[in-house]
Amino acid sequence: MIELIKSADDLARQKFDVFVPTMGALHAGHQSLIKLAKEKGDRVLVSIFVNPLQFENKDDLAKYPKTLDADLKLAEAAGATAVFAPSYEDVYPGEITKIEAGAIGNLYEGASRAGHFSGMLTVVKRLFDLVQPKIAIFGEKDFQQLFLIKQMVKELKLPIEIIAAPIIRESDGLAMSSRNVRLDEAGRKSSLIISKSLNENSITVMQKVLATEPGFTLDYLEIIDEDTFLPATSDSKNKRAIIAGWVNGVRLLDNKRMGATA
Q1: What is the rounded distance in angstroms from the CA atom of residue 19 to the CA atom of residue 16?
Q2: What is the pLDDT of residue 131?
Q3: Number of CB atoms found within 10 A of residue 189's CB
Q4: N or C end of the chain, less CB within 10 A?
Q5: Closest-CA residue to 97 (of 75, 123, 73, 76)
Q6: Rounded to an integer, what distance in angstroms lies between the CA atom of residue 60 and that of residue 89?
C-alpha cells in the first residue's frame, strides 16, 4: 500500500531515488511520469502541493481541482512508493527565498502570467531541498517550465538529474491536463484545434488552422530554439512549436518538436 507523508519531518526520515513533483488532480499523463520514474529507481516519491506562488489569478487557484484520494490510487497504480502532501507551512516555514526566472521567464507563458515562473521555480527548489532526490521527472507539456528548471539546476549546481517525459495525449490528440476537466462538451471539441495546428510546419499555416475555430482564443504561437528558448533561426538544430490560448476561459497549452509525427 502506498504511503502518505504529510509533514516535512516525516519526509526527512526517508530517502527516495526519484521525485515527481505535481499539483495533484493526477491523470494518465502524470502516471506516465511515475512509470518512467520507476524505471530510473526503486523508491519513487510523488509530491502533491498546489503552490499559491505560481498563480497570478486567485480565481484560478481556487478552482484548481483537489482529489487526494483519487490521486493516491493513481500514484500507487503507476508504481509510486509514497506521496508527499505537505502543508503550506511545511513548504514555506518562514521567509520565502524567491528564485527569479530571469529574461526567459518573462516570455510567452511568463508574459501572460506575471510571476508564474518565479513562483514555480521557488517551490521546485524548496521541494528539491526537502526531498534531496537523485533524479526528478518533469513532463514536456510545460516545455518552458522544463527549460527553466533545467536552467536553475545548472546555475545553482544542484546534484539532480532532470529527465523529460513526453507529452501524453487523449485519443483525439488533446494534450492531457488537469484543466481539461473544466471544458464542457463544446469546449472540448474546440480545444482539438490546438493539436491539429501543431501538425503543420509553419506559423503562417498554423495561424490559418487556428483561425477556423472561433471557440479558441490565441495567446501566443511561436517556433523556438529548444536550446535557447528564443525564436528559432535557420541555424537552430532543434525547433519546437509552442502554443497557448483559451477555450471558454480555460487556459490550455501544448507544444511539439518540429518535424515530429503526431
Answers
A1: 7
A2: 98
A3: 15
A4: N
A5: 123
A6: 21
Active-site residue, selected from the candidate residues 30, 38, 126, 188: 30
Cα atoms in the 13 Å half-sphere on the side-chain side of 181? 9
Structure confidence at residue 261 (pLDDT):
52
Q: How do beta strands 239-247 and 216-225 pair? A: antiparallel
Q: Which pLDDT belongs to residue 166? A: 97
Report which secondary-structure segment, H or E, holds 121: helix 116-131
Residue 192 CA: distances (Å) to CA of 25, 150, 170, 172, 215: 21, 30, 10, 7, 10
Q: Of 70, 86, 67, 76, nearest to 11 (Cα)?
A: 86
Distance of CA 235 to CAs 44, 143, 225, 256, 259, Å? 39, 21, 9, 19, 15
Taking residue 227's Cβ as centre, other Cβ atoms within 10 Å add up to: 11
Q: Which three cell numbers stand for residue 111?
A: 508574459
Nearest to 254 by CA among 138, 141, 117, 173: 141
pTM over 0.85: yes
pLDDT at 210: 98
Among 180, 205, 177, 204, which residue's Cα sits nearest to residue 190?
180
* Chain centre to alpha carbon of residue 109: 12
| pLDDT per residue as tens digits for the range 174-212 | 999 999 999 999 999 999 999 999 999 999 999 999 999
State how far the alpha carbon of 181 is from the alpha carbons of 26, 30, 57, 80, 134, in Å. 11, 15, 18, 24, 33
116 is catalytic: no
Which residue positions in the chain have pLDDT lower than 50?
A: 262
